[in-house]
Amino acid sequence: MKAIDDLNFRDDHIPFDISDIGIPYYTTDLGAAFLGDSLEYMKKIKSDSVNLVMTSPPFALIKKKAYGNVDAPDYLEWIKPFATEIFRILRDDGSFVIDLGGTWVKGQPTRSLYHFELVMMMVKEIGFHLAQDFYWYNPSKLPTPAEWVTIRRIRVKDAVNTVWWFSKTPFPNADNRRVLKPYSDSMEQLLERGYKAKMRPSGHNISTKFRTRNEGAIPPNFLEIANTESNSRYLRGCKELGIKPHPARFPTALPEFFVKFLTEEGHVVLDPFAGSNSTGEVSENLGRRWVAFELEQEYLDGSKLRFERLND
Fold it and tell me: What pLDDT does residue 311 have?
């Protein structure tokens, strides 16, 4: 890993130095990971200096997890100080993307509203704008909650996380041309044979511009990403070194989408609940500078394996 003196975050676009935050646990060519309370670390970051905060905090789950999670009734009060600091340190064109799974009312097959209440708090109390809601479908999720899905059989499995995209102002830095998808086979055929411009029954006017071949298809706000990295470098390394891997990693494809969509090369990406530091790995690979905070030392030790090629 890099020495602290080798990593300077001061230039015309990044108005802070990592030494302002503290001594990092480790650094790379483009980033720094810190061990400790992210709320205290964020208080040391200058206002209006971060382009994107991309994170997945502990969810308000009924069953307690090893990485720690807060009950739904207490969740808003717990996360509000973090969100307040995030709003402060974001640039005016910055974004806050939070992956937040839903939960169930204890003892009932009904859904908690905590993550919807969180959205209202973010907008009404803190000042964020809800830029867009995304839905991450993980087809590899197990059939939970077991009580209602596999035992009583009165619900289907919960396989979608809501990913909320908040912005500090109504017009954040975003460009969907950075996340275009290859055209589907049917679209390729349509472009090949042509399409007659007409008004559809729904009222949408399909003009001749529909036949224009662009660089790809605009993706929807429904992201299908399987979380099956059973043979990744990270997991292999954890096994070899006897390090306990983080139990709730999100796949690198998830932060990769938003880092591409909402930032440009050289921008700063922050993850205040880094875990195995998928966000840092993606940011490094895409040429973004990154900062990660994590409370558990073992998780940070494991996260170093994501950057092992940098140590050769």
Answer: 45
> Please, are residues 167 and 156 in contact by the beta-carbon 8 Å criterion?
no
67 and 246 in contact (C-beta within 8 Å)?
Answer: yes
Supply the pLDDT for residue 266: 92
Chain centre distance of CA 87: 16
Q: Which residue has the tokens 């209202």?
A: 120
DSSP bridge partners of 52? 95, 269
Question: Structure tokens of 68?
Answer: 């720690």
3-state SS of the chain: helix, strand, coil percent to 5? 35, 20, 45
> How are beta strands 289-294 and 268-271 bridged, if at all?
parallel
Reading the block at residue 297, the tokens are 């030392």
Residues catalogued as catalytic: 56-57, 99
Please answer whether residues 268 and 288 qualify as being in contact, where contact means their C-beta atoms are separated by less than 8 angstroms: yes
pTM of the model: 0.84
**Mean pLDDT, the chain cut into blocks of 10 residues (312 residues total):** 48 64 92 95 95 88 48 82 97 96 87 92 98 94 89 93 97 96 66 63 60 76 82 73 74 95 96 94 95 93 81 44
Confirm if 161 and 100 have CB atoms less than 8 A apart.
Answer: yes
Compute φ and ψ for 257, nearest 5 degrees. -60, -50
Question: Reduced to 3 states, what is the DSSP secondary structure of residue 192?
Answer: helix
Quick check: 230 and 305 in contact, CB under 8 A? no
CA distances from 248 to 141, 159, 230 (A): 12, 14, 13
CA angle (139, 144, 146) in 5-degree steps:
150
Q: Which one, of 276, 118, 286, 91, lies nearest residue 172 by Cα?
A: 91
Q: Let me know how long the chain is.
A: 312
How many other CB atoms are found less than 10 A from the CB of residue 135?
13
Spell out the residues 6+ positions from residue 28 whose beta carbon is closer than 8 angstroms to its own. 1, 2, 7, 280, 284, 307, 310
Give the gyration radius of the chain's Cα atoms. 21
